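agent> fetching stored inputs for the nicotinamide-adenine-dinucleotide docking request
agent> found them:
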Amino acid sequence: MNQQKKQTQPLRVACLGAGYFAQFHYDAWRRTGRVVLVGACDQDLEKAKATGLAAFEDLAVMLKMSCPDLLDIITPPPTHLSAIKAGISQGVRAIICQKPFCTSLEEADEATRLAEKAGVVLVIHENFRFQPWYRTFKHALDSGVLGDVLQLTFRLRTGDGQGPRAYLDRQPYFQDMPQLLIHETGVHWVDTFRYLLGEPEAVYADLRRLNPVIKGEDAGYFVFDYPGGVRALFDGNRLLDHAAENCRTTLGDASLEGTAGSITLSGDGSVTLRPFGNVTETVLLQPQSWKGFGGDCVKNLITHVVDGVLDGKPLENEARDYLKVIALEKMIYEADRQGRKIREVAYA
Ligand SMILES: NC(=O)c1ccc[n+]([C@@H]2O[C@H](COP(=O)([O-])OP(=O)(O)OC[C@H]3O[C@@H](n4cnc5c(N)ncnc54)[C@H](O)[C@@H]3O)[C@@H](O)[C@H]2O)c1
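agent> prediction call returned; pasting tokens
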């Protein structure tokens, strides 16, 4: 009876974090149906107030006062485990947690187990697979129009990594991260490659730091091997750019090549199909001015979770599944450290 009542009422959503990326979450929540925003919390109260919502600087107080059904965690990894514990103990139904999920595989595993034990839905905010162009890739792949797919490639060319002021205006913490390119950004393609091609059977990586003002790596490759010689290549370089009016729309370009045809993602977010042996391209996804971030992928993910919680639809990106992304990321750094391909792919 109580459950029935909850399904028809809007989901009460409270958010932890009001920093740079949170702006895309608040905007997306405001454009999402069947939810009501009940609070914003940031240790910097002024930032929480700037959201225009009931503002808090202490998570426990926000959870008690605003009684959310869903907690959206938009703060950095060191805050994740304690925030998930707080949400669970306060009785939320669902939690969305930004990537990178917790500070280690062990912590992420603990958070996953706690949520599962409490029956709380825990979804990781891994938004890139929700970008419309990758949904178009998946649709083309599943339709068979590409024939046997042999190669998936993403070239990250954000163009924001040059010189002493690299990243300072948008995400200054990038300069101090001991692991940058893969841990902070490349991880989106670890997940997107899994979304498109499944789990790899071997991992190779070769990473480097080009800009001496930063601590971590800002360029490099990782290669995933799949059965039958199929490969996925991530080729990242933050100092170089790509042809786009806004290099942050897609962050680079991509292709998915098969024996019957190839599809290409361009920097404007358009996707084209070229049949094998042909020079004429068909547009599968038109360039358009998307709202929000990266083809409105934050809203797409949020809507997916709301539908999952309210309607019981199957969820992507649940924490248990996301542990595989963390395990693969660890293997990428290990492959780079050892300078060899890792064939012993072991998931959590
Ligand atoms: N999925 C994506 O596309 C994407 C893009 C950018 C950033 N991110 C991730 O989002 C997270 C936040 O990134 P950001 O760029 O917004 O960082 P930020 O530093 O701009 O903002 C973080 C905010 O969290 C607040 N905060 C930190 N600890 C807190 C605590 N204990 N209690 C309350 N507030 C606290 C800070 O005051 C700050 O306002 C990171 O994990 C980052 O990797 C994801």
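agent> quick read of the result: Confidence is low (pLDDT under 50) at residues 1-6.
agent> awaiting further instructions
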